[in-house]
Protein 1
Amino acid sequence: MYFCSRFEKAFSNEDRMAFRKLWIILILSSLCTWVSAQHEAAAPQPDATEAHAEHATEAHEAGEAGSHAQHEADGPCGRSVHVEEEFNAGDNAVHHITDANAIHIVGDLYFNLPCILYAPKHGFKFTTTAAFEAKHHGIGEVAQDRYVLIHGNVMRATDESGFPMGTVTVDDYTTRDSIVNGKDKTLYYAVVGGQCYPLESKTTWDGGIMGGGITSYYDFSITRNVFTMLFTGLLLFFLFRAAAVAATRNTGQAPRGLQNFLEPFVTFIRDEVAKPSIGPKYEKYMPYLLSAFFFILGLNLIGQVPFFPGSGNVTGNISVTFTLAILTFLISTFSAKRHFWEHTLWMPGVPALLKIFILTPIEVLGIFLKPFTLLLRLFANITAGHIVVLSFVSLIFIFGNAGQSVGGSVAGAASIPLTLFMMTLELLVAFLQAFIFVMLSATYIGSAIEEPHHH
Amino acid sequence: MIFLSDFSVIKPEPGLIFWTTLIFLLFWFLMSKFAFKPIASALKKREMDIQEALDQAKQAREEMANLHAENEKLLAAAREERAMMLKEAKEAGEKFKAEMADKANTEYKRKVESAIQDIENQKQAALVDLKNQAGQMAIEIAEKLLQKDLGNNPDQIAFAKSMADQIKLN
């Protein structure tokens, strides 16, 4: 604990807030584990007749009994994805914060989106998630050129598996937890004609550190996050366009309505962020700062809306924050003046040895650390916020499953004010993180274009 | 039901990076061209207008202040003039009054004197008249008293006259 508090001090207030959220998550997840462990212990021993269900689909039919039969129902390729498992808050939260190829609206209703898939060995594949003919839980009944749909997410049968190309009816999908290269990994299989074909996820650029890596295909689909970005971007554009039209039309008049609502944000960014951080040349960077601010803010807020077209965890996805941070990095680096490079690479007034071995490496590292902290802060705060809200919502299901009684409903009712509190806090975080992102971007740009001071 | 418990939010995905870049760059371009630029120029213009209006107000206030000072000066001058005029009028009035009093006094004195003179003259005339009448009466009385002797005696008349002259009525 002492170490943790020391560690926390090294970070700013916002980072600390994120840390606290992580603490809450840890406590909550341990609570969930405890509750399910209790339930597990109290559960009756599985019935032998139910346990020997031959097909996973039958286990699905069995409904309630499915959870008891999970281990025995496992086929050679693991458990069927149709098996009704006990509610798992962690999986539920992760499922809701991740990107998806089709947007889950309610029940078995999915909003289908275009798929643009690229397998280097087989070229492009243009389709929509509707082509996978999903009926329940966004699980596709057919495969298209080795691509399949599971819970609204596209996966692909590996090239080595010899899965047939074209439209193929898939009997079932199974999953199995395994250890690959010393890492826990959930493996997926498509079952066609009693044969298991291993599936793989799209290529990610984490270099295998996060369990991803380069696979046989790339996914350039309009995913839930892309759709949310397009939707939010258009919404913001129309709002601001209306305000801009009003501003040009009503010159010489006091601003009203939408224009009056949006202008203070613009002046706030100008007067509180750009001017003090960048200095007299702030005007050149205003469009970027404003765009970044409203883009992040809009996505943060849309992500808070718990139903379609909201709830997409866009700014809590590292790919998005990475892109934005890279832009800040590029802008600040390319507008950097001689003064900045001089102070970064060869700090005047410091002994040469100190420069070579300590100062310059640290400063150069700092150039790359700045965008890294920028992308991590936004990502961590928004994802943590989503997870906490989802965990509180999950309490309803956890206690509902565990108690199936009055106690469960009481706990469920108690989670409503908790969720409300978290969502209110997240509303603040939405503004705060958008502000911090542009504030720090402005600071980095400001330090890059700073003119030497003559004393 | 199992969910994909793949924590993929922490993995950089080329597809999402591509779309984010494209959408954000487009957003940036469209927003700066069609929204932020007009808003910024409108804000600038409004700020300039406000500054101008404030400057004008300040100038007007200064002018007002100047005018006020001038008025004040004029008023002070007028007040002084009035005071002077009043003083002059007062002095003139007093002088006039004194003159008038003087004049009246002189007139009065003159009138009194002339009255005295008149009275004196009248008195003298009355005395003369009285003397004449007294003389006449004394003569008559004396005539009556001395009807026989004094009828036509000139010495007697002269004597009576001298006696009458000696009668002084004050």
Protein 2
Amino acid sequence: MPLLDDDARSLPRVILSTRRMSENKTGNWRTMRPVIDRHICTGCQICWKYCPEACVKLTDKVPAIDMDFCKGCGICVEECPKRCVSFVPEASV
Amino acid sequence: MKKVLMGNHAAALAAKLARVQVAVGYPITPQTQAYEMLAEMKAKGEFPGEFIAAESEHSVMAAILGAATAGARTFTATSSQGLAYMHELLHWVAGSRLPAVMVDVNRALAAPWNLWTDQSDSLSQRDTGWMQFYCSTNQEVLDTVLMSYKIAERVMLPAMVVLDGFTLSHSYEPVDVPEQSEVDAFLPPYKPEVVLDYKNPVGFGALVGPKEYLRLRRRMAADMAEAESVIEEVGREFGAAFGRRYGQLDAYRCADARTILVTSGAVGSTARAAVDALREQGLKAGNLRMRSFRPFPAKALREFVRPGMRLAVVDRNYSPGAGGIWAQEIKAALYPRSRASVHGYVAGLGGGDITVELLQEVWKRVDSANASVPVAETWVEDAR
């Protein structure tokens, strides 16, 4: 059993995060994944506007969702006026 | 220069003398005058720091968390419900290892509403990671605020300076107010190792896993243990600079005493008078005043106590279902080897007078009690 009593004063007082958030990927606890149907999407950008994580990218007519940061909240699925975002279990992807 | 000051004003003046950079406040009886005096000094241009009038005590401590993270020396004062409302942020400030200093003016917690002195507010914050120091005079309030910055900035833990509502906060006493140059020589500017700085961005308060959390708490324990000697060291330095020396304990006429009144806060002054009265009756009485509650001065207490000693602990606080809090802590510190008996007395809750007469009665009761079966909790009130 490791004892934390020896040299306890060498332990840190605080832990600071010095990395940028772009390196600190936070999309790993997603259980459901939003998938956009390219054929139905009209490029209205409603999903981009509603995404609380700001991980919907508008590089193309059809938006791309950055899965390194998407938490799978499903707001884009709910808000899409064309109902073209399906929600699929991560396990099935 | 000697001035006649109430405790609240001694606290506010000490904050100014400590060159506090950010003072934050929200009014609550019986602390409000400390907040008002800081606001007035700011308006007159006598207090060069920032002064923030927050919208609640929760926001006060949040502002202090931010200001201290940015590297500022901070101050606030509160009381009772206000301190309870700060509770969550007290943990944040301590866990972030920021050396904030605050004043708490003891006042009973509701329900029912009560405005008067009672330690249930400060002692309820026992496990937040704040150091706690209890004062018995307005001079000690001013001195302890100054010492607290030095202690807190050494061990990187926040400190709460506690004084009795009305008994000290609103009572005028002569206070020797040091010159700014003397305070500057004693208390150098605060130089934090890491600060919030947009040129060198880092993330504070990040999520950590169980392994890191345990290790951070272990370090806090090490720093709390170190604080016990730092309190003594800074108390000696203060004595050398200003002629008033302080430690974790303050013993009065204890050298040949078998039964000792153990007190904290302003009751200490009354206890000295009770001890003098008992001595005049030929009784070997003493008073031990507890100045620190966190870190608990267990080591100093064990060194002080002699086998066969009887400690009459007077608690102006109560933990429902467990008894007086100082008595519990003292018993835990002395278990199992001290061979002293600890007798708990609960008195003066909600600001009731703890008089010289009452303390003499408590002392006599304990002096003639059966030491092998000490009563954990006896409730007493003044006869008047």
